[in-house]
Amino acid sequence: MSEPEAVFQETSARPRTEGVPFAHLSLELGHLYMEDFAEGPERLRRHFAAVRPWADAARAGAVAPQHGRRRVSTCFLIDDYFSRLATPAELVPPLLDAAEHAGLTIDYLARESACAGPNEPRRTSLAESVMGRLVESPPPGSNGFRPPVSRTGWLANGRRAPAERTSAALDATGGWQPPSETGARGHSVFVDVELWSGSVERRTWSCAFLAAVWQLARLGLLRDRGRAVLTPTPWAADSFPADWDALPPLLRLNPTAAPFTAYYTCSVLPSRFLPVEHAVRVILEQTQVDTGAAGHVAGLSASEGMDLPVGAVERSAYVFPPGL
Amino acid sequence: MLVFAASDKGGTGRSVTSINLAYRRALDGDDVCYLDFDFGSPTAPAVFDIPDVAKEAKGRGLHSYLNGMTGEALRVDVWARTEHQVLRSRPSGAGRLVLLPGDRTGGEFVTDGASLHRCVDLVNALRREFNLIVVDLSAGRSYAMELALSATAQTELRSLKTRWLVYHRWTRQHVMAAADLVTGERGIVSAGVSLGHDKDQLLGAIRFVRAAVPDLGSPQWSQVPPAQFAWMRQCNRELEGIAAGLGIGRSRVLGSVPLEPVLQLQEQLITDEDVLDSRIANIQTWQAIGELAERLADDKHWGLL
Amino acid sequence: MATPEETTRPVLACGEVRTCLLPSSRALSNKEAELLLRLRDDDHVRVSTRPGRHVLSPEILTGVDCRFPLANRAKVRGVGTVASRAALTEGRLLQASSYFRAPVEGPDRRQPWGYYLARPGTLLPVGRIPESACLQGFLTVREEGCLDIGSIAEALLARISRHTGLLDYDVPLRSAATKLWWTARPAAPGEGASLERFTLAEDGVRTVLLRVPRGTEITAVVGLCEDLALHDWLLTTMVEKLDDNGFGSADGTATLRVLGPLVDHLLHLWMPGARVDRTLGAVWEVIEEDPGFSRQWHTLVQRVRDQLALQAVMSQRQALATG
After folding, report:
1. Are A131 and A149 in contact (CB under 8 A)?
2. Nearest residue to A317 via CA among A21, A23, A107, A28
3. Assuming Cys at both sites, which of A197, C72, C94, C178 could form a disulfide with C204, CB separation 3.0 to 4.6 Å?
4. In the listed set C219, C254, C273, which residue is the last one of a domain according to the structure?
């Protein structure tokens, strides 16, 4: 429709979306629990040594236009949400050393708690935002009413087995039924993901859910009322604070790094994270991303002559190397 | 205002009297809806004289809604749908009168978090449109009663004025059972408190309705032999004593409904026509229900004593 | 945003609008309304103050996979999302809309869910749907297992109604909610928007049949239907309040009790077509011609004012007589 624009306009009635720069690939150089850090520098060196060849492979295989420089940024997510055994001052320098020892550079360092809470006053929590964007994939027969996931805290990839008999007395229709995966090929792999625990007022987000938020952040699909979120803070100093909360949520350690957000993500992870990442995909598959953000990335990639898949799931990939 | 009608035993005329109350409040201009939570034996369609409702409600009634089988509970406009001669034309100045029927297919149901949530949503939707919501609960300690208590304890419904009418017949057994339903073990008060209600506030919101009470002053009883009459007076005094001893004496009684053939035999709405023209119902019953309907909405009859 | 497959095939659109008075003793400010309608933390609530106060929630989606309600009883499965949004006008009238677009032809089996999420508010048939049976069925078929769009709209109202921090439920006047069911199909090439039918049915149900120019944004159609529903609700409520009270017999205070809230809360809400997309403005012109919504409204408003003027004279006279 090529209507002339209205003469009178109110900005509050016509929202805009802030753009962000994009790399071709966001490469995650592994993930560790706090306990792994406690094992000392040798453990960290082994980790990055195992990651290195696969990181190189991912870099080489990155989808990018034929001409021009290939933009790949690397990142690492530190778990400061579930436990905080050590301070950033103690923990970060050995981590960076170990990576460097393996010939890897960590461009961006993020805190996992950044995926949960609001990172600035008067901003919304990223996890809360993503939860508001879950649109459950309806099992066949869903005609409009189902309790929203925000209430139950669980998200499945199909139809649950009825928890208990709910039919009236003398009604024989209420026997046991198996769960089923929607769109299964023959047999089901049914997954039910816990997104949070605790009360609605004080939620503890699950690792899987925060990991899904992390993926969406790397894919540049998160906004807060149109504004960019989790924008990197340049960090030139060699030292780090003694308190996690004093550390910005996302640091750019390498001043010449390609942008943090990327058309595709690849995560090189220990295989013990496979179930978590399966859950991440169940979540991403059912997340309706910000239309403004999606339009922005589609436009940018098209201008580079790239044809991006629409779904976040199709834009994220994994490597689970042996020995990691 | 939300009103729950409860009783420990059947045969108290709880449903039929509550329906009459709803009708009278609507005549007075209130917008009233009546919810049939009596999951064992839904009677409202018969009393309102809307024969097709039972079939229509199958799969769409309150049970199905609370069980999550349907997204909305069926609403039936009584003035528009009844086959009752008098009710068919909504009197000028009368409010809305809407029935939310139960459906048998639901039977008993499991009260879980989801049905509690749906119950709160339903009450919120109704209080957007109606100023009196009457909920008829099945007799005894039922899941429906537990649902009522938990729903009204939720923050979303805290501000809603809620009242309980506990019906009992005027006999020793009924008086004792009614007192036990309120203050006994697993009674309304103890269950309510464990679900988050304030004890005094809950107690202050409960009143008793004595049903099928013989009015010894009425001409009906002037014919009985003096000895029998004296014995009845004696029984009546004793019952008053028992009731007072159980904490459900006169001050906790909202009203009494006389022994009324129309309520007992026919289970029907009593209209002014029944009283004035065909004279099948007693004027005392009409007045008693009117008085109940008035007191139901009058704050001075409620609260902790 | 039209997806590629829709440029060639016709797309139908259907929806329901529920309209009710906000359960609150007073009108909400824009700030409060913004909190109330923040259905998604990270999304915009659209606030406009001209020509009247109007706050619009972000759009949320509900996934469905069920039968289309088809008038010819054929069983065609539809998969996709129904979109919903809420609007608050002048901080007073609350509306919840649920709606979807349906191309007459879709993929012949269910696709991965991401396919549907990329087409928000679109319900894709598995196979083909007959156009007229779909439009007619949406307005008439209410069957178990078929799409239940009313429940989706009601769930949104329920969600908003839980904001007891903002809503005190102490309404100045009691009123019934209305439901408006609408369908829209593409107009013939070169033709503008037209209203084919507007029906008042029982139990507060209204039905609207529209034809809209090809390529019209569905949100524009939703906006039109919300505007129709809002003004129909105003008329319905006003008629109900004025008819219900035999003013001749009522004493002064009773009249004031009925008319006062109408003056305080409703009279200033009449603004037909103010927020309607220009391409659809013709629909209001038709309604104003016949039956003439504004004509009826102005007559009702005049009646309210006459009654109040009469009351004033009467009470003055009474004061003189007793004084």
Report:
1. yes
2. A28
3. C178
4. C219
Where a domain ends, among C195, C219, C243?
C219
* C77-89/C60-67 β-pairing: antiparallel
- The answer, yes or no, to whether residue B253 has pLDDT greater than 70, is yes
Q: Is A145–B114 a contact, with Cβ atoms under 8 angstroms apart?
A: no
Q: Would you report the helix, strand and coil content of chain B in percent, each value rounded to 5?
A: 50, 15, 35
Q: Nearest residue of B to residue C148 by CA position?
A: B71
CA C296 to chain centre: 19
Pair (C172, C275) in one structural domain: no
Task: With beta carbons under 8 A apart, name residues in chain A contacting B117.
Answer: 147, 151
In CATH terms, the fold of domain B2-216+252-297 is Rossmann fold (3.40.50)
Domain count, chain C: 2
Looking at the structure, tell me whether residues C77 and C193 fall in a common domain.
yes
pTM exceeds 0.80, yes or no: yes
B93/C244 CB distance under 8 A: yes
Residue A110: beta bridge partners? A77, A250
Clarify whether residues C215 and C239 are in a common domain: no
Residues of C within 8 A of A144 (CB-CB) are 62, 64, 66, 82, 147-149, 151-152, 155
Q: What is the pLDDT of residue A54?
A: 96
Return the domain boundaries, chain A. 14-125+207-274+287-319
CA A189/CA C113 separation, integer angstroms: 16
Cis amide linkage into residue C172, ω under 30° from 0: no
A180-183 — which CB contacts under 8 Å span 24+ positions? A180/A139, A181/A157, A182/A137, A182/A138, A182/A139, A182/A140, A182/A157, A182/A158, A182/C113, A183/C110, A183/C112, A183/C113
Q: What is the pLDDT of residue A4?
A: 43
Q: State how far the Cα of C104 lies from the Cα of A54, in Å rounded to an integer.
A: 47
End-to-end Cα distance, chain A: 55
| Rounded-to-integer distance, Cα C113 and Cα C190, Å | 36
Sort out which chain B residues have CB atoms less than 8 A from A166's CB and list them: 67, 109-110
Q: Which residues of A touch B109 (CB under 8 A)?
A: 166, 168
In this structure, the answer to whether residues C76 and C211 fall within a common structural domain is: yes
**d(C-alpha B292, C-alpha C225), whole Å:** 45
Cα separation of C88 and A221, whole Å?
29
Q: Do C263 and C162 lie in a common domain?
A: no
Record: contact C114-A142, CB cut-off 8 A: no
Indicate whether B36 pLDDT > 80.
yes
- The pLDDT score that the predictor gives to residue C143 is 82
Q: Which helix (H) or strand (E) holds B239?
A: helix B226-245
C240 with C197, same domain? no
| Cα–Cα–Cα angle for B101, B105, B108, rounded to 5 degrees | 90
Contact call for C46 and A13, based on CB within 8 A: yes
Tell whether C215 and C315 lie within a shared domain: no
Among A39-53, A180-194, B206-220, C17-31, name the one with the lowest average pLDDT.
B206-220
Residue B301 CA: distances (Å) to CA of A25, B205, B294, B297: 73, 10, 10, 9
User: What ipTM was assigned to the predicted interfaces of this complex?
Assistant: 0.89
Asked if C184 and C210 count as a contact pair (C-beta separation under 8 A), the reply is yes
Place of tokens 């949004």: C85
Containing domain of residue C312, as a range?
Answer: 235-322
The answer to whether the CB of C215 falls within 8 A of the CB of A3 is no
- Residue in A125, A143, A286 closest to C148 by CB: A143
